[in-house]
Amino acid sequence: MSYSTTQMINTSSPLNEVDEECKAEYIDLYKFYAAVMIVIFILALPLNASVLHLFIFKLRFWKSNTNNIFLFNLVLADILLLFCLPIKAYNYIKGERRSTNDTVCKGMLFMLFLNRGASIAFLAVTSIDRYFNVVHPGRKNLLRALKKSPQISIVIWLLLLPLTIPTMLKNFDCCNSYDANSTSREELVDSMREAVFFSQIVIPFFILVYCTVHIVNRLRKKTVGDRTKLRRAVFLVTSVMVVFSLCFLPCTIARVVLLISRVQLWSKSSQQKAAAAFDGLMVLSYLDCLLDPLVYCFCSTKFKGLYLSTYFPFLLKGDHVPVESSTGNTQPRRNNVI
């Protein structure tokens, strides 16, 4: 009996060790996180799916010379990221910060990093494209030439693939970076993984700030054109900056605090609080999947008219709303939005 008990304890110790590393200490709080992710999933999935349907079957984005190609990939990345949320919510409800199944855990990390990185990358590329269109409208640039071909989007996806490798080498979700017993090789892996995480947010953030400031300044100096359209354009680019800052900067700061708590060997209670705050702000970052279509797509009058006429024609109440044809042209008038 004693031998069996001892054998059972020894057999289960590796699993218990993993559970202890990634155990959610504040169960009620993590159940709230799970509820938030489920709400985001329920709201964002049909919205992104319907927008994706319009891009494919109505706008035929691959034939468009506008930034529809980039917007399509942005929505595609968001909708792929959404499929990770139910699994994440299930783990939180069980009181686990990540799956105890190694294959599921690494698969989730791959999907989260790839699609989240793609979402941020296409968001940044769209902002750069808008920057050249507004600030340097007559200047030839490489992006303007490349965006006419869908191949540039494939290249962006392929470039993001190697960036997911560091996240697969060691568990990321529980932030085991820079452990006191880490070897030099493990610390190198930790540094690579953290560099990927921060570069995916910090570099696009500075690009976004630069583009937004110059676009807003250029639009405010314009004296020719519809003032309403100019105000709408300023609101759009400012909204993008606000959404990015709201969704991604808080979790980045929380990650820094969590790493500091581990390196400086804070008390266990303090590390648990830092981990819970980081996980909660990561949940906030998933809100980007819901806000992206609203900010990028529905700020366009012609896209909003197309969406309403396709899915909610009864809301038009007989008003004449410009609807975009499958070729990307607006009938009967053209109503471009920056």
UniProtKB/TrEMBL annotation:
The record's annotation in PROSITE patterns points to:
G_PROTEIN_RECEP_F1_1 (PS00237), G_PROTEIN_RECEP_F1_2 (PS50262)
- GO terms for MF: G protein-coupled receptor activity
Ordered alphabetically, the record's keywords are: G-protein coupled receptor, Membrane, Receptor, Transducer, Transmembrane, Transmembrane helix
The keyword DNA repair appears for this protein: no
Q: Where in the cell is it found?
A: Membrane
Cellular component annotations (GO), alphabetically ordered: membrane
Q: Which residues form the G-protein coupled receptors family 1 profile domain?
A: 47-296
Q: Is Repeat tagged as a keyword?
A: no
Give the main localization category.
membrane
Q: Which domain of life is it from?
A: Eukaryota
Stored Pfam families: 7tm_1
Topology in the lipid bilayer is annotated as: Multi-pass membrane protein
Membrane-spanning residues: 32-57, 69-89, 152-169, 195-213, 234-260, 280-299
Q: Which InterPro entries match?
A: GPCR_Rhodpsn (IPR000276), GPCR_Rhodpsn_7TM (IPR017452), HCARs (IPR051893)
Q: Which family does it belong to?
A: Belongs to the G-protein coupled receptor 1 family.
Q: What is this protein called?
A: G-protein coupled receptors family 1 profile domain-containing protein
- Organism (species): Zoarces viviparus (Viviparous eelpout)
